[in-house]
Amino acid sequence: MAPNLVDIFSLITTITLCAGFVFFAVYGLRTIQAGIASTKESLKSKGLTVSRTGVSLKTDKRMDRDEYLNATQRGFVNLVEASSFRRGDGTVVTPGPLLPSRSTESNDSHGVRKNK
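Above: the chain sequence. Below: its structure as tokens.
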């Protein structure tokens, strides 16, 4: 039995759809890979290197012990200044700034306020 016109048309349509799917899958994959590569290059120009093992940061200087301690102390000061503590009587105490303020205003309330 010879194939008729509908069989040939169906075969051509099926092959065309499969080829189109493969083409767009490959095109999409290449586009995504190009985006990843450009992002890696952009990060690399900013000093970040991305690899399979993780991310590494390029720095221009090394910190000695004093610089490391100063940075750590600044972090603790910022942490304490941003915190608040609740007492048993419902008052909230926020510690004042640990470092001297440059403003001339005084803090009369000492960071204590009543909850309503």
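The two ends are 92 Å apart (CA to CA).
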